[in-house]
User: What shape does this take?
Amino acid sequence: MSIFRLFFKGLGLGIRKRRLVPRLWAVNFLFSLLAAAPLALAVHGQLAHSLEADAVLAKLDAHWLTDLSIRYMEASPLVTGLLLAAVALYLLLSVFLNGGVIGGLARAESRTTLADFFHDGGLYFWRFFRAFLLSIPCYLLIAGVLHGLLAELLDLLGRRAATEWPALVLRNLRLLALVLLLGLVSMFFDYVKIGLVTGGRSSVLKEAGRTLMFVARRFFRAWGLYLLAGLAFIALTLAYLEVARVLPQGRPLWIPLVFLWQQLYVVGRQASKVLFFATELEFTRQFQAPPRST
Assistant: This one.
């Protein structure tokens, strides 16, 4: 089966499981509200019942931001700690949500309830968390070592250039290479997670070995399918940026419309996430033999 047919098959699976997208959006929206609450309270304390609010809403002033940061400089360790805690909690939440998404897509039923979603998130959480820990050194190896070697090679080529255009092209190639290399790691661990769900195995290391052999035998088809789903996400982002560019910024009457457009983009990002997993799941079903019963 061609990657285009697999893509549309995965798209169909995502449409059938369309309830996953609003669930992802709702959880992310609630988490964002909780994470932004301390900053919102600080801003409210500065601007509430003040004529300064009109000026800030009309145009975000850099002097006001500087004054606010200096005023709360003594609390910077606390703010930094809260920020790091929010990032850590969001990573754990993402691990949990990935379990709910892949588990929901893998279910034979066309509809999965909210209870099923949270059940799958909890069921696969520790397996996916171990896969997440395993992915960290892989990302560091790719971004720090392999990409570093490639960057050095491109720099050597750029030093011989007579004009600045080759150097500019090579810098863009460095960025593109980094994105593609990180995408390879992301794709690989997506298949690891899918294997942990469809294969019913709990050993992440063994599943990573099986996934490596599975993807290596069909690398170009798997990579092509991943890039096809990635192009859909890029098209969504470009459409969002093009519309956001013409929307008036900083005008109170337009704030609800800007906010709505931003949330629609967030929904689209969650739909893209489901699309990635759905296409990869269909690819796995197409080429992987069913697991043996034990």
About this structure: Residues 3-287 form one domain. The two ends are 30 Å apart (CA to CA). The longest helix spans residues 125-159.
